[in-house]
Amino acid sequence: MIEPLQDIMRQWGMEPASMETLLLHPNVTKVKAEGKTFYLKRREYSSIENRMEELYLTSYLINNHLKVETPILTSSHLPYVKEGEQLYSFYEALEGMPLKEFSIDSLTKAGTNLSTLHLILKEYQCHNEVKGWEIERHVREWVNELNSESIGRRGQVILSKMRGWGTSFECLPHQIVHSDYNPGNILMQGGEVSGIIDFERILTAPRITDIGYFLAGMLKRIPAEKKDHSIKGIRFFIQGYGKHEPLTAGERRMLPAIVILFLLQHAFFYFQQGYSEASSSCMDFIEEMIESAYFHEVFQYEKEKLE
After folding, report:
1. Which end of the chain has the least Cβ crowding within 10 Å, N or C?
2. Which domain holds residue 33?
3. CATH code assigned at 80
4. Residue 87: phi, psi to the nearest 5?
5. Residues 6 or more apart in contact with residue 263 via CB below 8 angstroms
């Protein structure tokens, strides 16, 4: 696999000293060249329009003083290489390590960083059509596919309890969002956010969709015995986010539903990957949260703080 990638690398005028495909991310190859570290990424579910839009958007963010991963141009001045049916983009590694410790400080700063990102993206004008983030459709597809399994039936019960959320969600203002704002894509250095990576799948959605996606990604990683403590971490993230532009009352009401929908997707994914115990644990947690007044009250923290 590495040898064909070396041929691709020559379109960026590079002769790599070493190349290593990442075990946990087989679409990503770590490249050492010219004394620097780079990443060659196979964009499996992308298009030429997506590759161009990523270049325009990340260049815009950099011009607005955000440190983000942006594709390097080839010798033909393109942000991608097309090899057969596959598209590849190439990036210089940013400084920092992925967010791993969910502390008061790190969660607050991650929230503030996302708020800054959203404020800048709010003014961004797309060059190509960008799809909407259809989170309800994705969840219902999982439920229908798993309707003969216990987890599918449990998912259907949860969705029935959340009936009507979609109308309110669609009424919220939509804008460009990252759509993969998770701890692995948030780089930290010296206790500060040093960069954001992976703008492969930018979409349009209410800004709370990015928030819910991050919070669900945080919650799913926490052991069951620490779930109560981790729910409190939501407050720190939202507090950080609110430093620039506080959530509206409508956004606060909708956010618990968004978190639960993304956790459902994680539970279904675990099940399909054969991790039935992790899937069942995630479903138990979701069912506890949907009935928990405390979980919903956590999202009112910002309102209480302002009052």
Report:
1. C
2. 2-92
3. 3.30.200.20
4. -110, 140
5. 216, 219, 220, 282, 285, 286, 289
In the predicted structure, residue 272 carries a pLDDT above the cut 50: yes
User: 10 with 106, same domain?
Assistant: no
pLDDT at 49: 95
Alpha helices in the chain (DSSP H): 2-9, 48-63, 104-121, 135-145, 150-161, 165-171, 208-220, 227-241, 249-272, 276-290, 293-298, 301-306
**CA separation for the pair 158, 261 (Å, rounded):** 9
Q: Which of 72, 92, 112 is the last residue of a domain?
A: 92
Q: Are residues 44 and 131 in the same domain?
A: no
Residues 78 and 173 placed together within one structural domain of the fold? no
Q: CA 54, CA 76: separation in Å to the nearest integer?
A: 17
80: which 2 tokens? 């991608």
Q: How distant, in Å, are the alpha carbons of 41, 62, 98, 169, 224 from that of 193?
A: 23, 15, 9, 29, 28
The closest alpha carbon to 179, from 217, 222, 210, 141, belongs to 210
Task: Give the integer Cα–Cα distance in Å for 19 and 1.
Answer: 10
**pLDDT tens string 273-282:** 999 998 998 9
Region for residue 269 given its phi and psi (left: phi exceeds 0; alpha: psi -120 to 50; beta: otherwise): alpha
Residue 73 corresponds to which tokens in the numbers above?
Answer: 């141009």
**Mean pLDDT over residues 178-205, rounded?**
96
